Amino acid sequence: MSRRFYNLPALSALSAFEAAARHQSFKRAAQELSVTPGAVSHQIKSLETETGITLFSRVHRGVELTEEGERLFRAVRGAFLDISGMIESLRGIASPPGVTVGATTAMSSLWLTPVISQFWRAHPEIRVNQVVSDTLEFGRQLPELVVSYGPVRDAGFAGKPLFRDDLIPVCAPTLAKQHKTETLAQLAQLPLIHLDAPDKRWTSWATWFDEQGYDGPVRRGVKVNNYMIALQAAQDGAGMVLGWRRLVSPYLANGSLIAFEGFTIPAPASFFLSRNKQSGSNPDIDLLERWIISFAAGSSDEVNSIKS
């Protein structure tokens, strides 16, 4: 076999490796590349054989990068981003001005959009683009900032805690009037709306009851895979849902949902604001990042003082 000029493995193998490492999954990498999982596995095996390095550890629900694999991923991803940026530049495709912020549907709708709306009014000269993904997977066009429950699972982002919310059961006033709810056992037998979220870090009823020290029977209720649907079902009287206090505060304020204050607990994880390490130094990103952090801290005076 002839020696390649740059002494690199096949680009198809590097591309399969980068996608598998980014998704932490051969299956999702295959979907992105429009090939079979077996083809991705074959490319990874070929790359491991050629380099003599084990790149992934196979685990129960997928794959994890080894230490050497993590180092290679950072190098390959950086090179691909540089190539992508140069090609776009040569094509004359200018990136839209402003800052892109990623979040889940619920976080975007319930908390982030009002924050950004206030930012727009204060800084109309800066365009802020939102991208929404309930799996926080954004493809090649990675946002500069991401708001997430728990840190972003991507080595290309550096995160900091934004705020820690409280978890509290909420339901429609009509449902609350129909049921006596003074103990955890009584609450556990109400119609419950279970969230089957793509991100398993979102707290479930089972975890919530465990945190409360309750190990009795829990009513199954209905199951949905989107938090906004869960909240709408709760407002329609279909059952009780776990509420993140800051996220559901508009519903509590207008009375469409009521909270069972006696059962409040701190959420197991904090919400994070993460920044894309590739974004570099950018005053617009810096400004929006400070704005979001100040808003989360609850200081309106500090938010309004952020001018540049």
Description of the structure:
This protein is an alpha/beta fold. The chain folds into three domains: 11-91, Winged helix-like DNA-binding domain superfamily/Winged helix DNA-binding domain (Arc Repressor Mutant, subunit A, Orthogonal Bundle), CATH 1.10.10.10; 99-164 and 270-305, D-Maltodextrin-Binding Protein, domain 2 (3-Layer(aba) Sandwich); 166-266, 3-Layer(aba) Sandwich (D-Maltodextrin-Binding Protein, domain 2), CATH 3.40.190.10. 44% of the residues lie in helices and 18% in strands. The protein has twelve helices and 13 strands. The protein has helices at 11-23, 26-33, 37-51, 67-91, 105-122, 173-178, 184-188, 205-211, 227-235, 245-254, 283-297, 300-305, and strands spanning 56-59, 62-65, 99-103, 128-132, 145-149, 157-163, 166-171, 193-195, 222-224, 241-244, 258-259, 265-266, 271-276. The strands form four sheets. It has a five-stranded mixed sheet, with helices on one face. Strands 7, 10, 11 and 12 form a four-stranded antiparallel sheet that branches. Strands 1-2 form a two-stranded antiparallel ribbon. A hairpin with a 2-residue loop joins β1 and β2. α1 packs across α3 (37-51). The longest helix is centred in the N-terminal third of the chain and has 25 residues, at 67-91. It is globular, with a radius of gyration of 23 Å. The N and C termini lie far apart (58 Å).
